[in-house]
Structure formats: C-alpha cells, structure tokens
Amino acid sequence: MVGVAEEAELDRLEKQVDGGRKEDTAQYLSLVRKLKVRRSEKVALHGLALLNSPSAASKLGDDVWTVYEQVAIAAMDCNCLDVAKECITALMKKFPDSNRVGRLEGMWMEAKGYWQQAEKVYESLLEVNATDPFLHKRKVAMAKAQGNFSGAVEALNKYLETFMADHDAWRELAELYISLLMYKQAAFCYEELILAQPTNALYHLGYAELLYTIGGLENLRAAKKYYSATIELSGGRNIRALYGVVLKVLLFNLPFQIHVGCLIESLKWNFVCGNRKVGQRTCKAKEARSAWKGTLLLLGFGRCGAAINQLLKQTRSRNEEESMEIVSLASTVLKMEYKSKAPKKLPLLAPLLEKAASAS
Amino acid sequence: MVGDNKYEISQRAYIKIVLHALKHQCNSVNGVLVGKVTGAGNEASEEGNSKIEIVDAVPLFHAQLGVLPMLELALSQVEEHLIADKESLVIAGYYHANERFDDYELSPLARKIGDHIARYCPQAGVLLLDNRLLSSLGKGGNKKPVVQLYTRDSVRGWRLGVDLSLKEPTANSILSDYISEKREQLLFDFDDHLYDISNCCHIISPGPAPESWELINQYSVEKVTNIRMLLSFIKRMTCY
Predict the structure, then answer these.
(1) Residue A249's pLDDT is what?
(2) Structurally, how many domains does chain B consist of?
(3) Among A4, A77, B3, B236, which residue's CB has the most CB atoms within a 10 Å radius?
C-alpha cells in the first residue's frame, strides 16, 4: 500500500520522465521497485529506452541487472514478450544458474500460456530452493490465471501454513474469497491481518466492509466499531469509514419486530429465561419464519417477555447514545469535506445525512 | 418474451464502459447503466416490446467489487441524482468487465447485482465486456458493440441476448481514437471519488458527446491497436 506523499512523488517523477527528462528515469524506476506499484507500460517504455542507451546504462553500474529484471516483468505485463525474452537472455548470460532468472523464465512461459512447462520450471526450482516464497506464489498466480480459483485458494492456504507472516498473501486470499463470495472466510483473513498489524486502518476498513456484507445485527454492530477504529487510525480522513458509520445508523432503524427478532437470534443462548428449551424452540421458529411470530411466541410464554423487553431497552439506549455522537460527528466531517472539495456533489449527500440524523 | 426487448446504447455510455475497463486493466470493473424504458404495454412487465435506451453509464468500482456498503451508497447517490435531475431516467442496467482476458462468463457477483437491479427495473440488462471483440477493434470496420448483453428470464436467469445496438454508428471509431489518445486517464469512478472526493464521478445528464474532455497528457505513444489483447497478460500476473 502506497502513501499519499509517496504516490505524489512517483507521479511527479513520472511526469518529468514522460516530458523527456531521461536523467530521472533511474530514480523513477527505483521508486517503482521500492513501492511495488504496477505501472508496466511506463516502466517498459522508459526502462527499455534507458537500457538501450549505453551512457545511461553504464551510469547504473550493477543496478542495471535489477533494471533488466524490472523491464522484463513490465514487458511481460504488456505482452511484449520479445522484449522480455531479450532481457531474460541478457540476465541468463550474466547469471547462468540463478534462481531468480529461472523464475523469470517460468513467468515468460506463463505469459506465453505454456502452463505445463512453467509448472515444470517451478518444480525444478523448488527442488533446489524449497522455501522460496516467490515460487509458491507463482504457482498460486498460475492457478488464478487459469481461472482455477479453488486451486489457487488451496495453494495459497498451504503457502500460508508455512509463511503465515506474509500480509500480502493474506490480503490476496481475502480477495480470492470475496470473488468467490465466501465472505466469512475472507473475514477470517482480515482478522489475521488485524492481529498482525492492529494499527493499519485499511485492514479495519476491509473487515468492517465484510461484516456489513455478511449482515446480521451483531455483525453490523461490530462493523460500526471497526469503521470507528478506521476513522480513529486514519485521523478522520477516510471517507469510506465516515460513510460506513452513517450507513450503519440507517440499518439500525429497523422496524421493531425485526429488531427484536435479530436481538433474539444474537442472544440465543443468553436468554434470561427459566426454560432453556423454550428459548431454543422459539429461536428455531424465528429462524424459519418472520421475527414477529418469534416475538409473539416468546411473549406468550410470559416469563421471557419482560426480560427481553428490558434487554432491548438497555441496548437501545446504549446504541442511541453512541450512535448520536458518532453519526453527527461523521456527518459533519463529510459535509465539510464535500463543501471544500466537491461542493457540486453536496446535494447528493444531504438526503442521506438527513435520514441518518433523524434515525439517530 | 424478454427477447423482444430492444436495447440501444448511446455513445457516451458505451465509451465510458470501455474506457473504465481499460483504465484498470488488472482488475474487474463494474458500474451501473442509466437510461429510459419505453414501450407498448405495462412498463413494469418483463414481456412486451419495450425499448431500453441506455443513455449514460456510471463507473463504480475497480477494487473489491464484492462488498456491499459502498455499492449501496453508490446506488443511493445515483438514485438521488436521477431524482434531482428530472429527466425521468432510471437505473436501467449494470455493466461488468472481468479480470481475466479469457473469462467470458458472467460471474456470480454480476448476476447477484443484476438480480438486485432487475427487482426495480425488470427489463434491466447486464453488459459484459467482450475482450475478443475489443482486441479486434483496432482493425477497423467493426460496427458491433464490444460488449455482450445479458437479459433476465424469470425461469433461466441471465442469458445472452442479441438485441443490442449502438445508437451512433460512429461509436467504435471514436472509441478507437479515444483509446489511442489515452483518454481513460480522465475517467474517475466511485472508488476514485472515495479515495479523493475532488475526483468527481461522471454522472452527467444527457447532452452532446463529451468533447470537453481535454487531453492533459500530450505524450505521444505509438498507436496501440489491440490494447486489451496486448495487455492481456496482466490478468495472469498476480501475486507479484
């Protein structure tokens, strides 16, 4: 993930290089490498120009081989496979038995679509270097490229059993799960990420969005907490989190029946109720049909009714206090941001914020 | 029969869809289509000879398409805009472009979102970018739209439809020109807007074609004809 300042610096260098300042090319390429961004067209174009110019290439010294590797990968990304092959050949001459160059060869075969040959290359490299994370990741990439998502998920899970500190891999796994609509598993990945880096706002944001998507009252409450954490960690600048908090309130304003039904579900085994079996049976009723029927059954049993109502009042008043403050603050920040940066869009925002204000 | 519905897409919507996909070649992209439904008979019914004119497209996301909150927010903002606009346009469809070059199927996510939109507009169509057709765009003379249309049948779900036409026959040649001028860099979607709200989405009411898009980058690149084909390998390079 790239910070705003770094991205600005990268864009500035890119503009200068595009404008003809060849002396900045080396710096631009090294920043792209450092930030691990994917700007393959520019890198291929300017990198190739750099390599083809003997004076500029000699100034790089030993870095020229890193640039060869970078240009090879960028060229493969742009489907300029001849260029890539030339770079790889040059690297092979310099480093005949290198694992890294072998990897590039494998990638070239993937680019060509020769999946089995690429597989063989990676297997043979793995025999020598069983713990090379890049080789494992290339296998995952191949599975994904061929559309075999379940294979990719399996391979990535196996990789993460060994390299469980690889955050990028956890994120990739979460994305794979999301594309397969397996949200709970994706949420698990984000939980791992949050445990590993609790101060990273984007992980909290991703987790909140997943909880929202999965749905259910408990999850929505948790989502709101994670959105709030994102706001805190990002210094209130993250628009998605601000919107997330506002959206939550609208959902909390559900009709009473459904509200109670959801509460019942979430408090399944915590009923202040003498007869546990009663609680269980009525839960099943609620699950199968509408919440209102569940509520009636419960109230019919008398003993649970008062307790449920009391619990409801307590949680409602807690919610209301929290909601009011967070939502009004979030709404104010959103309004201010829109006024300063996109005043024309403010009318689109106003109805949503009004609803949120009235709901809380 | 749903198959009797005719879909017509304006140049503006068409170009936006393709440029959105080209701006984010490494990702799947999606967005909603905005337009009018006219036709004999009950507008709310799926049957009958309705004509669905897709007037504009609103590019939504290029990252994490499968999560709900921002999608709900975007749809509500689009609806607010359409209500305020008073041109009596509705959300008439959804478009999607897959991440991989050789993926020509409508993904489960696209189907789900399409189902949701179809609840409000039964004649809604789903457009899926066809990479093969896009690759052959540069060869010239191609009058067919580079998107596939899917329509909804209550029995069989989303099926490939055939009744999609371009409103302006010059759309493909203008699209080729815009691609070679790299105008996709001028397009911002909802994700870009959320990243920095000064990037405004192109929710524009019907009007003349967007000639006011100025070229901000005069850097001349060799005319790249088969863009999607040339950049197809991106799809296979993940986990780098």
Answers:
(1) 62
(2) 1
(3) A77
Across the interface, of B26, B69, B103, the residue whose CB is closest to A147 is B103
Contact list, B240 vs chain A (CB under 8 Å): 36, 38, 73, 137, 141
Q: Helices marked H in chain B — which ranges? A: 11-23, 69-85, 108-120, 131-135, 171-180, 190-195, 227-230
pTM: 0.78
- In three-state secondary structure terms, B6 is strand
Digit-coded pLDDT (tens) for B43-58: 444 556 789 999 999 9
At B238, the pLDDT band (50, 70, 90 cuts) reads very low
A43 part of a folded domain? yes
Residue among A110, A179, A206 minimizing CB distance to B236: A110
Residue B213 maps to which CATH number?
A: 3.40.140.10
- Band of residue A306 on the pLDDT scale cut at 50, 70, 90: very low
**What is the count of structural domains for chain A?**
1
Q: Enumerate the residues of chain B whose CB falls inside 8 A of the CB of residue A140.
A: 238-239
Q: Is residue A127 part of a domain?
A: no
List strand residue ranges (DSSP E) for chain B, in order.
6-9, 29-39, 50-61, 90-97, 125-129, 147-153, 157-161, 164-166
Tell whether A301 is covered by a domain.
no
Residue A149's nearest CA partner among B30, B28, B32 is B28
Q: What is the CATH number of the domain that holds A8?
A: 1.25.40.10
Domain that residue A81 falls in: 1-118
Q: Which of B69, B194, B233 sits opposite A77 (nearest CB)?
A: B233
Give the structural domain span for B98: 2-238
Q: Chain A residue with minimal CA distance to B190?
A: A240
